């Protein structure tokens, strides 16, 4: 927990203190503030209660901030400001030129995803003013936690008139919004991202990795994110671990315990319950109330966009996750409020041609984040307004770049990544079956539900042996499957109909997961599942429309009762009133929270010590950095769907007879293609069982070799699979302490982008301070299809993304390995003759991949070692004879390894004589230079710089007592142009030792000389402040009469 402390004299400062660290804020008035208000900080002028912010001409407010160890910080002048500990800060906001610090004053546990991963619901917040004490005793009164419906468009309580200004806090409307029970946070994990996109080794929540699209306090917390970016790594880790900085989502989170008798998952840990969790993340990109936020904006953001994740966890460590999204129809449309349904007219505001670019942005962003998109449109086929929207929706999907290709994303016609299912919910549920008939939608979407798969993680334990034969125990989570696509469901409001259908889709996904394990769920399990989704629907509906969801009684129980119908009628009437009379005020408050009001300016934070230390450390990085060589083995093998090789001797490939220094590489990356037969049934979904069998065979081969030579064994770091393509990375157990941020990602390219017969699997990591990415890919087949292979490369390179939107190219070291399917452009007869005489040079001159790379059409800036082995495809099984079938395919180097990185040198490139497939496996070994940072040296240098800087600036820190007027020159001024130095002041010169202040010592040129005080611009008239650092100014002879001799 965090304490809120305050110091009143000599300068008002607010501190957030934990048991280990303290974060101190102190407002720094500008010269304009002081000249306009000579009695600063207390002018006696109390801000109005309007939620509007400062005018357009307002200057950026500035605050000094300091983060330090609580043991080295003098807090004796501080007193408790809040009666109870708080749960961290949501950030800073400016209202009418006053700066407020927002803290979470009350919270309760809402969900527990897995042990140690809790979600807290925010129940109350407080706003503390940094620059004046006028509001210190206003905001502590308890308030109704759901009162934002009674705030008018100017932020006043309706029905109470205008109160005296002193009686209402400027942030009252914000407090009511944030205390409404719709905001959530977690100190244990990144709540803005689905489980599939989180790293296993996250021990704290790093603010710079959060998804800004779901981070509702992003505007308020951004100044602190910027401040954090300037800290050293150890200070960043300490700040993250302190829990002082809090990230909030809006939406819903809840967990139900599933007792063993009701749990469908068999567990070896009897008596322990499983958990089912539902988390909904409402986007803040186009946030607003029902009639104020409809359709889409020009950046492709849609209203009421929600990502909902169903999570099921068992005590054995099995974790299932499934994500789907909802959102307003992505066209430009509006709807006017009205007391009668007929008055709520829908109008489409842009032509199809003007809409398509923004529509494409929206769908491309979805595909980039989730993979192929299956749209489920529930709008009516009878209501004219909904028919008009559906017609336009259908038009834009038909003309989408995801379906028709574009030069921009390099996809070809036929690479369809967008499907549409139209299901008139009202018409389908009008019969005697009622809402139960909605489940019939499963017939239309089942193929996608099975093809998209789901995320599946498991806890594994490995016991690698040391060279001395001792067991080492490693327990960790590993990814078995990844979700490969998403359903995007909508109705008009994306509330009632949408929530019911999403419940059905969630159930379908859970059933697919359970059927794969040979398990079935009980009625009690599905009742709990339905209750979670009904609660979710109510929560999202209250946020967007002001009332709970309609049809929720059916979602809970599977039946619609008379009481439920009456409740729906009451909710409809309440919605009409709220949407017509209260939504404008709620919208203004939301816009203020998100920093969208005219004239709103974010707070600028500066730290005169750490900002300087960070700059100096970057300049002197070589003093604490060094390079360490490691070896990497990377290999690729197209298995042609064969399984007999699992029990074969894989050592000629995995442990080849290379130089002894490379026989035990630190990292082994193994890529397989066609790990299963690519039949029509197989290519739609991923079965991890075959990959796990091959991983076991690879690890057995590596560790048998290590044991024979007295070397340490390997552990599996991570694996990933896209139907037939898989990638597995193994590392020596001793280097695990250097490896962090291990992530995996997939990208489909085959069969219109919906199936996984072609595509890529990637795994990235950071080894010490060097980022490494491995990619295995299976590109389009066919002799003449090199253009399509080039497009496949561009699709993968552009579309495959890791966390923080990292691409493949955002790494120091990149290694591609796989069946790229490029062929040799010569006749079959000539190729075979050249192979017989060993003329690989001529073959390589006609190799499609070589020619396309030279032309810059694929794999730009990548390199390949010289090929000294015969083509790897296509052989008759079990022989060294190239294809003798009727097709008589031309031999080719389909299987390749490419590299990129200044720190990477390839040593070997060869093939291995394994004959159970029609391909030959290929391997490459590399020497990779890893950047290592000596954290002790860096910390020592950092401390020296810190103490030097602190001694230099004295008390001009957030906890110091220097006069405000001395602090302006410590702010890091930005240059007006990138090539120019920062601006100087009367005490700060950029040309003197990194802009530090200077003391000038003026000496006369001769003993007989004296200063000429009569000269207007002579040295006698110079007024240089006396500050500690000395500099001598030399003078040359001049005709000016500045010196009298």
UniProtKB/TrEMBL annotation:
Q: Where is the SAC domain?
A: 174-546
| Endoplasmic reticulum listed as a keyword | no
| Major localization listed first in the record, in broad terms | cytoplasm
Q: Where is the signal peptide?
A: none
Q: Name one GO molecular function term.
A: phosphatidylinositol-4,5-bisphosphate 5-phosphatase activity
Checking InterPro entries in the record gives: Endo/exonu/phosph_ase_sf (IPR036691), IP5 (IPR046985), IPPc (IPR000300), SAC_dom (IPR002013)
Keyword list, A-Z: Cytoplasm, Hydrolase, Protein transport, Transport
Q: Spell out the Polar residues composition-biased ranges.
A: 44-58
Q: Name one GO biological process term.
A: protein transport
Family per similarity comment: Belongs to the synaptojanin family.
**Any idea what this protein is called?**
phosphoinositide 5-phosphatase
Species of provenance: Macrophomina phaseolina (strain MS6)
The uppermost taxa in this organism's lineage are: Eukaryota, Fungi, Dikarya, Ascomycota, Pezizomycotina
């Amino acid at each position: 927990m965090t304490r809120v402390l305050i110091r009143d004299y000599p300068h008002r400062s607010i501190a957030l203190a934990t048991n280990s660290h303290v974060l101190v804020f102190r407002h720094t008035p500008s010269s304009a503030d002081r000249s306009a208000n000579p009695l600063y900080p207390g002018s006696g002028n109390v801000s109005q209660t309007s939620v509007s912010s400062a005018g357009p001409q307002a200057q950026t407010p500035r605050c000094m901030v300091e983060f330090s160890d609580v043991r080295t910080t003098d807090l004796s002048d501080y007193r408790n400001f809040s009666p109870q500990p708080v749960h961290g800060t949501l950030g800073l906001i400016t209202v009418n030129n006053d700066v407020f610090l927002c803290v979470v004053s009350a919270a309760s546990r809402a969900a527990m995803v897995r042990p140690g991963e809790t979600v807290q619901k925010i129940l109350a917040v407080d706003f503390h003013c940094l620059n004046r004490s006028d509001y210190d005793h206003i905001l502590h009164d308890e308030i109704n936690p759901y009162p934002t419906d009674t705030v008018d468009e100017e932020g006043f309580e309706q029905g109470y008139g205008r109160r005296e200004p002193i009686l209402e806090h400027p942030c009252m409307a914000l407090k009511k919004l944030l205390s409404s029970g719709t905001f959530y946070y977690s100190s244990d994990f990144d709540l803005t991202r689905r489980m599939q996109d989180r790293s296993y080794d996250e021990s704290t929540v790093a603010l710079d990795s959060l998804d800004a699209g779901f981070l509702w306090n992003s505007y308020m917390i951004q100044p602190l994110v910027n401040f954090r970016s300037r800290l050293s790594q150890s200070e960043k880790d300490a700040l993250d671990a302190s829990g002082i900085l809090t990230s909030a989502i809006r939406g819903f989170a809840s967990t139900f315990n599933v007792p063993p008798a009701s749990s469908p998952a068999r567990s070896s840990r009897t008596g322990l319950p499983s958990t089912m969790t539902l988390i909904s993340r409402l986007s803040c990109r186009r946030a607003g109330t029902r009639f104020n936020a409809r359709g889409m904006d020009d950046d492709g953001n849609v209203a009421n966009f929600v990502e909902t994740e169903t999570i099921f966890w068992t005590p054995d460590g099995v974790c299932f996750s499934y994500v789907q999204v909802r959102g307003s129809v992505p066209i430009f449309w509006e709807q006017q409020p009205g007391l009668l349904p007929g008055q709520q007219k829908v109008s489409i505001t842009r032509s199809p041609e003007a809409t398509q670019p923004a529509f494409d942005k929206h769908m491309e962003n979805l595909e980039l984040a989730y993979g192929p998109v299956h749209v489920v449109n529930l709008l009516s086929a009878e209501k004219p307004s909904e028919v008009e929207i559906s017609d336009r929706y259908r038009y834009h999907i038909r003309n989408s770049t995801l379906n028709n290709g574009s030069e921009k994303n390099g996809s070809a016609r036929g690479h369809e990544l967008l499907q549409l299912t139209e299901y008139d919910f009202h018409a389908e549920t009008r019969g005697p079956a009622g809402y139960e008939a909605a489940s019939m939608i499963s017939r239309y979407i089942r193929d996608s539900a099975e093809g998209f798969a789901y995320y599946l993680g498991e806890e594994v334990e490995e016991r690698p042996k040391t060279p001395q034969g001792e067991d080492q125990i490693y327990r960790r989570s590993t990814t078995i499957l990844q979700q490969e696509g998403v359903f995007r469901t909508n109705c008009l409001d994306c509330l009632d109909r949408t929530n019911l259908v999403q419940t059905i889709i969630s159930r379908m996904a859970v059933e697919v997961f359970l059927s794969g394990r040979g398990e079935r769920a009980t009625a009690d399990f599905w009742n709990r599942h339905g209750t979670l989704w009904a609660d979710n629907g109510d929560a999202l509906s209250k946020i967007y429309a002001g009332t709970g969801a309609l049809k929720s009684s059916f979602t809970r129980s599977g039946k619609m009762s008379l009481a439920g119908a009456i409740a729906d009628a009451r909710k409809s009437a309440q919605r009409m009133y709220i949407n017509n009379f209260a939504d404008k005020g709620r919208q203004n408050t939301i816009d203020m929270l998100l920093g969208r009001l005219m004239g709103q300016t974010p707070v600028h934070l500066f730290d005169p010590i750490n900002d300087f230390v960070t700059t100096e450390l970057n300049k002197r990085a070589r003093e604490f950095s060094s390079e360490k060589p490691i070896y990497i083995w990377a290999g690729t093998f197209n298995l042609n769907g064969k399984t007999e090789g699992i029990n074969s001797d894989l050592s000629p490939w995995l442990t080849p007879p290379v130089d002894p220094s490379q026989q035990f590489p630190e990292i082994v990356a193994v890529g397989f293609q066609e790990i299963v037969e690519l039949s029509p049934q197989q290519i739609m979904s991923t079965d991890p069982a075959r990959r796990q069998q091959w991983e076991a065979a690879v690890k057995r081969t590596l560790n048998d070799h290590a044991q024979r030579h007295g070397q340490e064994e390997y552990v599996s770091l991570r694996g990933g699979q896209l139907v037939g393509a898989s990638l597995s990375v193994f590392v020596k157990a001793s280097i695990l302490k250097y490896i962090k941020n291990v992530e995996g990602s997939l990208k489909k390219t085959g069969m219109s982008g919906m199936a996984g017969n072609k595509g890529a699997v990637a795994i990235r990591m950071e080894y010490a301070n060097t980022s490494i990415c491995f990619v295995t890919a299976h590109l389009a087949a066919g002799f003449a299809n090199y253009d399509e292979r080039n497009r496949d490369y561009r699709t993968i390179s552009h579309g495959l993304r890791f966390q923080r939107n990292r691409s493949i190219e955002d790494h120091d070291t990149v290694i591609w390995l796989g069946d790229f399917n490029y062929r040799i452009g010569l006749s079959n007869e000539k190729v075979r003759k050249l192979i017989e005489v060993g003329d690989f040079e001529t073959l390589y001159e006609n190799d499609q991949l070589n020619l396309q790379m030279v032309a810059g059409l694929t794999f730009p800036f990548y390199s390949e070692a010289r090929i000294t082995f015969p083509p790897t495809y296509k052989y008759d099984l079990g022989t060294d004879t190239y294809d003798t079938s009727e097709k008589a395919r031309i031999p080719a180097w389909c299987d390749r390894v490419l590299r990129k990185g200044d720190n990477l040198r390839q040593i070997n490139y060869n093939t291995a004589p394994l004959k159970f497939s029609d391909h030959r496996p290929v391997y490459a070994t590399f020497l990779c230079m890893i950047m290592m940072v000596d954290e002790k040296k860096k910390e020592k240098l950092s401390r020296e710089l810190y103490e030097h800087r602190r001694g230099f600036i004295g008390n001009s820190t957030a906890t110091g007592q220097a006069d405000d007027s001395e602090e302006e020159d410590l702010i890091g001024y930005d240059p007006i142009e990138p090539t120019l130095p920062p601006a100087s002041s009367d005490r700060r010169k950029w040309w003197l030792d990194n802009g530090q202040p200077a003391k000038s010592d003026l000496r006369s040129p001769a003993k007989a000389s004296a200063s000429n005080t009569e000269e207007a611009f002579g040295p006698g008239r110079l007024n240089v402040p006396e500050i500690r650092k000395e500099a001598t100014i030399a003078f040359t002879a001049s005709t000016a009469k500045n010196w009298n001799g």
